[in-house]
């Protein structure tokens, strides 16, 4: 009887071993598709994990990342030794001695689980955990039919991880496997990989981590949320100390060191990476659509399209991080002071007013209908339900933006929040290097977390008097000298089928003085601009503006002379760049090149150039723009002399729309063209005083602050100096005294207000 039992046991053992070997063989080959696929040898040799694509400035500063999983890889040499020691001591102390499967550890787990009925961990080696991270062995895509059988699924998964771990051990060194594991692990807080985790929790690189910091991060492998030092600090502290005990147990640190380290608190420098932080936040979000489109249309060597969020692309923008910082500082400094001025003028009154200065009734009730929250509530409760109004006015905890105190925790309803944010003035700024077409700074708005809308390229508003530059450009191209004389008096333009247009000057007065068109542009005289529009025709002005660089739709009406068609700052600086660039228009661009994760060039972007006007006419327009600084009562006279000294030639044009809804300034130097816009979220939101809301007060100071910072930084290489002169002598006289002596025939008419046809 005893022999029969022994034979039975031996037979069972042999059959079990053979059966298990056959089971491993079946799993390895995915027999009949029952077990799910395993990675092939090529995949093992070149494992793929999602890598965040990185956006760099022209001067090599990381601006931000695009990712589904925020991950940036490191090499073994970039790891702190204490991090490696903490990992081995806690997760796989026999890592150096096994070949992917630790049978001793497996035996311990089986004994404690089956015999002693105690939890003993999974017994997985670092190689097995790396296999799980790299090849997603536990995802549904990796499962076969038999994985649905209760109890069998985990056995199949474990066998797969054993097989892959053994193959990894043959393909990689121990250091490489350990590095792969740290690069592919999740740490919580949207941090994937040790480099991102070290930066997120401690604002350090992996090779800079202290022992206790490494222990915190290694402790996260057990359960990233439960042991999070941010959300569960007590749990994290206990787990960190457990890791330190493991390090002391296996000789990586001394007992004295352990006793000292466990007394330390966890000191975090916590910052989750997102598009609301860092430089050029609006820029990064706006160009994401361009990058996604590029990735879809560009194929890898294997014929598949690139993936912006997983292929670890390196994107180099034309933005200069120093200039970007100066632009953001300039807008921030000015807007916080301008907001105070706006609030003082506003007092307790609402800022949304009509043309008569009266508060617009039901303004917020109409405005709320344009936001997603309202549309979602309408879908849920119906447009006319009481529940809709209750929900819109239901107070809840929220954090709001303020200039004075940063973020504020408060109790606001949706309507409270709408009322609060509508009272903020908005702004945008962009700076272009004219000769290259490179955008060097892009500030799309205030705080990107709270003000998502981009006012550089996405936002379009009436440009006001800044558009006058294109009227005078058309005049210059049609033979008029900057010295051409016109009288400041009422002008009436009649076009069949359209009402008569009789524009007023900003101060509602006419001087009835004769002045050059250069002086008229410098002082932004509406009547003279309207007179030139009448001489030229709206059609000619539209054609000129389009050729020079305006891409938005322009209405061919006389009032266009005063900037009534919406345009963006982006296209305005591009068009003004044509003047600085000696008549050649370069479409502003902002992506220089894109490389793959290994630094191989995929695409180099080149500027789109075309001849837009003659070199002479472009220079004459710079001379016209200089008038704002050089002519009496020019709209740029308020610019400090510190920007205009050392023989520096500057040009600029202010712009203010009706009721001061929009304030603009476009400024040009020999190198840079920069534009600023300031206004309310809605055109009805503006200063009650036209003087306070004009572009010279709201927008020009941003440009002044920015240029002062740029000139103060010699590392940028932008110096003061004159504009480039045409190679040939000018064919049009710009010495107005000589111009008047040479010919009086350009005097437009002898003025007699009683006989005037205008």
Instruction: State the share of residues found in helices, binned by percent.
Output: 40-55%
Distance between the termini: 128 Å
Number of helices: 28
Strand content: 5-15%
Strand order of the largest sheet: 2-1-5-13-14
**Low confidence ranges:** 29-33, 109-121, 745-758
Biggest sheet features = 5 strands, mixed
Rounded to an integer in angstroms, the radius of gyration calculated over CA atoms is 35 Å
Number of E-type strands: 18
C-alpha geometry? elongated
The assigned structural class equals: alpha+beta
- Average pLDDT value? 86
Structure description:
This protein has 758 residues and is α+β, with helices and mostly antiparallel strands. The protein is built from 28 helices and 18 strands. A 5-stranded mixed sheet has the order 2-1-5-13-14, covered by helices on one side. A hairpin with a 5-residue loop joins strand 16 and strand 17 (662-668). Helix 3 runs parallel beside helix 9 (211-219) and helix 3 (81-91) crosses helix 10 (233-249). The longest helix is centred in the first third of the chain and has 28 residues, at 2-29. The protein is elongated, with a radius of gyration of 35 Å. 42% of the residues are buried.
